[in-house]
Amino acid sequence: MLGFLAMRLLVAVPTLIIISILVFSLQMLLPGDAALVIAGGEATAETIARIRAEHGLDDPLPVQYLRWITNALQGDFGISYRTREEIGPMLISKIPVTLTLATAALAISLLIGIPAGIMAAIWRGRGWDHLVTIVSLIGISVPNFWLGIMMILLFAVTLGWLPAGGYVSPFVDPVAGLKSIIMPATVLGTALAAAMMRHTRSAMLTVLQQDYIRTARAKGLVERIVITKHALRNAMVPIITLATLQFGTLMAGAVLTEQVFSIPGVGKMVVDAVFNREYSAVQAVTLLSGFVFVMLNLLADVLYFWANPKLRSRSL
Amino acid sequence: MSAQLATFAAGEAGDRPAVDPVLSVRNLSTSFLTDDGWTEVIRNISFDVGPRETVAIVGESGSGKSVTSLSIMRLLNPTGTRISGSVQLAGRELTTLSSEEMRRVRGREIAMIFQEPMTSLNPAFTIRDQLGEALLRLDPRMSAKELDRRAVELLDKVRIPGAATRLAQYPHEMSGGMRQRVMIAMALACEPRLLIADEPTTALDVTVQGQVLDLIKSLQDEEGMSVLFITHDMGVVAQMADRTVVMLRGDLVEEGSTTQIFAAPRQPYTRALLAAVPVLGAMGAQELPQFFPLVEPATGIIQPAPEMPDTVHREAAPLLEVKNLTTRFTMPGRPFRKPTHRVHAVENVSFSIQPGETLSLVGESGCGKSTTGRSILRLTTPSGGTLRLDGTDVLGAGRNRLREMRRVAQMIFQDPFASLNPRLTVGAAVAEPLVSHRIGTAAERRTRVAELLRRVGLAPEMAARYPHEFSGGQRQRICIARALALEPKLIIADEAVSALDVSIKAQVVNLMLDLQASMGLAYLFISHDMAVVERISHRVAVMYLGEIVEIGPRAAIFDNPQHPYTRRLIDAVPVPDPAQRAHRGGVASGELATPLRSVDFIPPQRVYDEVAPGHLVMRQ
């Protein structure tokens, strides 16, 4: 297994290099260049040329790329043209916020989606199955921002139980932190739970048809053990796949939800950066999410090993 | 008091009153909820299983034999099933138990093993885990150490070599035979009174089947269990059962002692079933292949089979010439290392087939017989050797030549369910080879399809239907019609009748013989079923670990087998005659060896001795 993982890690390296090249070339696709932005609208051609030379924008692209990636690897993504803040530390300060939100949302997705999916599979075609299907359809169809606004209206404006927005770290102040995260996490989590439930249901339906489930019942095991041990473990592979994908999407920034609840996370940073034409910040976030996805895929591989012992002996 | 007891005991021994049965089934009927309402799938089934007795339920697919066993265990989906009648286990009624009480009976008092050892064990848990679960039902407080000790004891009991090292293994690390032994060990864990074995050896190779049957028999004696044995194989019935219950389409047709059922079957269906069973050695001195005698199931009247003409063109140039065919697969090794092992699937195999001749390739799973067939059509790329098909060099052929060549040789496969596209009508499936070779107009193709369907015994109108509307036997006929579309000279039939019921199998074999007689087809008949091979072949080649160990005329192979493996293969076939029960001493537990070799392995030079004209045996 260690050999397999080492190989996957090595495969991840070229993947990350390709991602970084793509991210770097994003700025080439945009009209104008950074020098225009820095110089402002009324600069003369000479000023622009001077800024270009100063920032090395005249160098050949490979040289520019190498410089950029060398800096990026040291956490240096340049300086925000607007706020004069360093982008690297800014991004790093947003990560814990988004990570907390993503973890909470994924937990809600798993806690609702898996049990609901299992029950829908067990009572297939009956009342509970239909109910869960309808609810999950609603969960998928309702737009996040709308649900967010409705929750703010109810819990913050009308009832006054929760803050309407902002973020407090739960590690600093657990109560206030939980209060600030509960609504955005629910909004994100319920939408994901719907997909999680559908996947769990179909995986469980397949597994429950298998011969070894009949064997487990013929052994006289209690139905609870048959479902939670024998069936669920084998249904885990698609669930793991979906969960890591969901987590990756969340880490790339829950753009709308962070905007609605004005949470200072990665998603909000992306939106701000795009509106202000801060290319370097957009690149930094894109590179980060690429990295997160690659790492999550690696994590998924490790989890597959746990769920499916056959993989462990595949390499002879 | 004690005197009274003594008299009573003596009286009992003298009169031998009927012993109370372990399992008593009375008027058992089961219905499934379908789109048309409740449909009865088994009707009024009644039988007993006495202490230490083995009762076999025998029948073809759809006879309801598995439903009977699942109804006894109450393992059918409770919402879509209705069970009536009575099932008593040692006098205790099971049908009225609460589901929790019934759960306690399962595994503890009645244990069950199933047909598919490959899928019946949970792939995600170790053998230790799965055996432990069963053992914990005996005593939930058993310590981990005690559990391990008992688990090893059980594995020893089912004669699994190296029991202690097996506990940490996962099912996929074991062969089918070993997995079925683990299933049996699991079933024995709680020392049940009754073991229900649902087709336990059907998916196993014949020599492994022999071992597992022997094992069940000896364990039954050791443990004093009763066994309810469900099977479609009359050979297995004859070998295992004290009494036999014959089922047909949900009804119990006949019940009696196994000796009586085989010697003097009362019901026409039983007679038909027995007549359709291929019996090894039934051919005697007969040189040519022989049709199966067909029996009218309603009347039990045996229709005499026509004589098979001699179809072999002995003087003609061989239709297929295979010389030193070798196919190896390299196993993916550890990351960053060179591959260390190769599967020598086919190693230095040579044979030829004359026009109109049937050569059978026999052997057990993994012996390379299917790879040989696939290599001939280049569905798998051989690593070496020469292949000449109808005068064309197959291995040197380019794309176009290969296409042409595939008109000469066609293939039919084992699973008629999987080898037809469910979304194509039967007509479209049969016409497909014509379309892809651009033969004829649409109208001509339709005529040709109708003619082909008629040829394989189906109605031309069936062309508009979809595969799911057909039975297994009919689908195999469709596959044969499709293979015939390009008028091939050779058909490679890879286990083509193995998945079919006995009576259907006999019909399809007869169809193949009929086509050989009328069209002069040659067959490469790949099969593990020795009795069918004996019927259909002119010549037989026995394969073991990728090599041919013996090849020769059919009569020579069956009457005078020279290689020890050929003898083992023939001996392992269950004889459908209770009077000839094999008396084997001890239970062998040999594993089939694998043709997996290290990359630097140099295959030994083989020498073949010609013991009789055309009869070659590998020298050991």
Brief characterization of the structure:
The complex is a heterodimer of chains A (316) and B (620). Chain A is mainly α.
Uncertain regions spanning at least 5 consecutive residues of chain B:
1-17, 583-587
What is the 3D shape of chain B? globular
CATH-defined architecture of the domain at 95-266 and 301-315 in chain A: Orthogonal Bundle
The total beta strand count of chain A reads 0
Report the uncertain regions of chain A.
none
CATH superfamily of the domain at 95-266 and 301-315 in chain A: MetI-like
Q: What's the count of strands of chain B? A: 25
Q: CATH fold name of the domain at 95-266 and 301-315 in chain A, please?
A: MetI-like fold
- Helix-strand sequence of chain A: HHHHHHHHHHHHHH
Strand content of chain B: 15-25%
What's the N-to-C terminus distance of chain A? 11 Å
Share of helix of chain A, binned: over 70%
| Structural Rg of chain A | 24 Å
Oligomer: heterodimer
Terminal-residue CA separation of chain B: 71 Å
Largest interface: A-B, 29 and 37 residues
Average residue-wise pLDDT of chain B = 84
Name the shape of chain A in a single word.
globular
